[in-house]
Amino acid sequence: MTWADPQTPESEHTITIRATNSAGYDEESWQLTIGDGETQTAGSITHDGITWTFDGDYQVGQFVTGDWWVIPPTPDGTVTVVAITKPHSTNGRDGSMLNPMGATGHGYDARLLWYDSSLDVSRSLPLIMSADQSLVSTISWEAGEDGCPSVVGDKPRPTVRRACVLTCLGTAPAADAFRPAYAGTDKRVFQASALRMDLFPNLTAPASTPSVASLEAYFERVWLDHGVNYYFNEYIHPSDNMPWYGQPMAGQVGEAAAALLLNIDSESKRQLLLKLCQLGIDNYGAAAAGACWPANGGHGSGRKFPILLAGLVLNDADMLNVSANSHSMSSWRFGEDEQTFYVTSGRHARRRNRRPQHDRTRVLLPSRRHRAERNRQHHPTSIEPLLRRLVLGARPHDHDHRRHRCWPVPRH
Questions:
Q1: pLDDT, tens digit, for every residue of 270-307?
Q2: Pairing of strands 78-84, 50-62
Q3: For the purposes of burial, counting CB atoms within 10 Å of the CB of 4, is it exposed (0-12), middle (13-18) or buried (19 or more)?
Q4: 117: closest CA among 128, 127, 126, 105?
Q5: 30 membership: H or E segment, kind and range
Q6: In this predicted model, what pLDDT tens digit does every residue of 298-335 receive, in sequence order?
Q7: pTM
């Protein structure tokens, strides 16, 4: 029995069987798809301390970045979740949401503004899931627990400790599939086999380069970030998963992006890229569902670059052209756009000791943007994604300054 290379999962192959004896031979060929060799069923899934229990056994598996999927018996069937881990007995803790949208309403923790108990699906089990749905489950913090963040008012900041995602699909995905975005209803499945690894240079790594393992750990868990208000976002950012503030988020993205440009081990580089691409897919899905990260100090930083990176290496026009949305739709807002502006090298620069004008939130009107230089005001981590984009051959900020929508607010 023979088949032609490559023998990769989920690809088509022609299998030929030949029978031979003294009289000669006979052969016949078939086409089939080589699977990943494993089909597993389970009555429950546990991931990072959160357990989803079903009403029976279903086919389950993991995406390339480790998150779990489950499929119903038939593509148009359903999966029934009968129990979800809730470590705290108090109502209004450890909430779960189905396909969360970018809005102020949420079902995670009743101590937060805009809590809506009807959005917490863990309070009305059993939950019937169908294809193309994402279940986001969380564990809350209680004041006094070991490792609990500082308490502001009556709640820790962040209030959410951990979050995990379970995705229901109609059919089993390819072995190298990324998890679809957790937010919204766009559940496109991208594959790691499409990654453009050839786009990255192999620059000499400096001695101070952090270990790739430490960079991967930044993105090991989902970054829950689908709000429209910085106050809401900083409280739902799970402290076990991600920083609560945009400045260190941008810093971690910048460090990882820098490592992708270095002559590190190719498999390590690929694993790190997988994590950053998943973040980009999630950020794009959240933005498409209505989330936004407007300028306000460092709160709105660090979300745009992962989207552009994922669009570039997965060759996805929607993500790569996200800037077209950011100046045509008021809901698509990025702090790195709104806090960036041009000044002339003359009048404005001389007035500020050759330093461009800037505020915490204000965006200068297009008529005051000129062509000499751009500056990002809040912190140096904003420069890192800019440099990564330049090395990768992308335009520095990927948006049209002539059409970019502005939201002027009072100076502080």
A1: 999 999 999 999 999 999 999 999 888 889 889 999 99
A2: antiparallel
A3: exposed
A4: 105
A5: strand 24-34
A6: 898 899 999 999 999 999 999 988 877 655 566 788 88
A7: 0.81
3-state secondary structure of 384: helix
> Of all helices (H) and strands (E), which one includes residue 152?
strand 151-152
CA 372/CA 39 separation, integer angstroms: 59
Q: CB count, 10 Å around CB of 107?
A: 22
Q: Residue 165 and residue 221: Cα distance in Å, rounded?
A: 9
Beta strands (DSSP E) in 153-270 are 155-156, 160-168
Kind of pairing between the strands at 151-152 and 160-168: unpaired
Q: What length does the chain have?
A: 412
Distance CA 176, CA 97 (A): 26
Joined tokens for residue 168:
């229901």
Which pair of structure tokens corresponds to residue 315? Answer: 């060759």
What are the counts of helices (DSSP H) followed by strands (DSSP E) for the chain?
Answer: 10, 15
